[in-house]
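Bug report

Summary: structure tokens for Transposase IS204/IS1001/IS1096/IS1165 DDE domain-containing protein differ between web form and batch submission.
Environment: batch mode, default settings.
Steps: 1) Submit the sequence below via batch. 2) Compare with the web form result.

Sequence submitted:
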Amino acid sequence: MAVLGDIDEFIPQLQLEARRQSFESAPQVIWLSDGGRGFWRVYRTGFSHCAVAVLDSFHAAGHLARATQALFGEKRSAPAWSKVPANG
């Protein structure tokens, strides 16, 4: 779904659509999201009570790459899983 406006206008529309699709009666609900802070606020606001949150693998690898660089510096060889562009 899409909303013209900001994330505060998006949240109630998404909740309405999720209810329309009876998401609360589903046996399991997965919230798959990227690393954007606003999307995690959407999760906490309307879905944390019934959904399992998962950070997508691309963004998770990016966070791990930045953590590896912060811990070990740019010159150390990073594990293969961390070789994701830092701006990803």
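Above is the batch result. After comparison, the two runs are identical; trailing whitespace caused the diff. Residues 57-72 form the longest helix (16 residues). The two ends are 24 Å apart (CA to CA).
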